[in-house]
């Protein structure tokens, strides 16, 4: 029996071309993604192609669910600097109180000379004590700001981010001026201190301006 016979009932129908057979061994049928073939459309990704990590909210507009590492470092440094500022404020306050008590024990008749703007040792001590008290109040104020910014990192928004940037820029400027002065005098201790201060200020600013930092402070809060 021949399949080429037009009268053969078991042969292919006349006028209809035969369907092309699927590809040979190893080729995926129907364009389905398989081993080594990237995903087409919205199907599942093929074997060997890792999925892209996304933030909460979807790609392109997602938000981190945990505080990024650079922000955690900036937060810890804020707490450390705040503690150091509290200690510095207490030292200035104790120093001012000690100088005031010591100057009160000196008789007002102790003349410093005609070239001195102060009339006596007591007046000079009171002025120095007042200056130290002002420094103590400034240190305490900055300590409160540092600690409050660190606390607000967990739930704060753009206000906390912008305030930290300004705080870091101010600290970096003061650190650069101090570094220039220390280098001109050749003070190794001052150079090391101001270099450390500039580095800390740079970490604060960097944590606020990187993409992860901006996304963290822009995230929705429920």
How would you describe the overall organization of this protein?
This protein is mainly alpha-helical and 222 residues long. The chain has 5 helices and no strands. Helix 1 runs antiparallel to helix 2. The radius of gyration is 37 Å and the shape is elongated. The N and C termini lie far apart (79 Å).
Q: pLDDT below 50 for ≥5 consecutive residues: which ranges? A: 33-38, 45-60
| Backbone CA Rg | 37 Å
Helix-strand topology string: HHHHH
What fraction of residues sit in β-strands? under 5%
Give the tally of β-strands. Answer: 0
Distance between the termini: 79 Å
For the sheet with most strands, the description reads: none
Structural class estimated from helices and strands: mainly alpha
What integer is the average pLDDT? 76
Task: Provide a compact summary of the structure.
The protein is built from 5 helices and no strands. The chain has helices at 69-104, 121-152, 158-185, 188-209, 211-218.
List the helices and strands and how they pair.
Blueprint: H1 69-104, H2 121-152, H3 158-185, H4 188-209, H5 211-218
Helix pairs in contact: 1-2, 1-4, 3-4, 4-5
Give keywords.
222 residues; 0% strand; single chain; 57% helix
């Amino acid at each position: 029996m021949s399949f080429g016979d037009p009268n053969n009932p078991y042969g292919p129908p006349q006028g209809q071309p035969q369907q092309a057979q699927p590809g040979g061994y190893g080729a995926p049928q129907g364009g389905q993604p398989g081993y080594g073939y990237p995903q087409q459309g919205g199907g599942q990704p093929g074997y060997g192609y890792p999925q892209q990590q996304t933030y909460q909210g979807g790609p392109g507009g997602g938000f981190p669910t945990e505080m990024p590492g650079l922000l955690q470092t900036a937060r810890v440094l804020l707490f450390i600097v705040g503690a150091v500022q509290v200690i510095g404020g207490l030292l200035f306050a104790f120093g001012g109180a000690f100088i005031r008590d010591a100057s009160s024990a000196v008789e007002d008749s102790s003349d410093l000379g005609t070239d001195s703007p102060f009339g006596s040792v007591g007046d000079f001590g009171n002025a120095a004590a007042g200056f130290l008290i002002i420094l103590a109040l400034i240190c305490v104020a900055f300590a409160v700001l540092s600690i409050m910014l660190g606390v607000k990192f967990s739930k704060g928004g753009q206000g906390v981010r912008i305030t930290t940037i300004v705080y870091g820029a101010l600290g970096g400027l003061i650190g650069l001026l101090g570094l220039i002065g220390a280098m001109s005098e050749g003070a190794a201790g001052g150079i090391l201190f101001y270099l450390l201060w500039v580095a800390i200020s740079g970490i604060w600013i960097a944590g606020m301006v990187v993409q992860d930092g901006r996304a963290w402070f822009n995230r929705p809060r429920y």
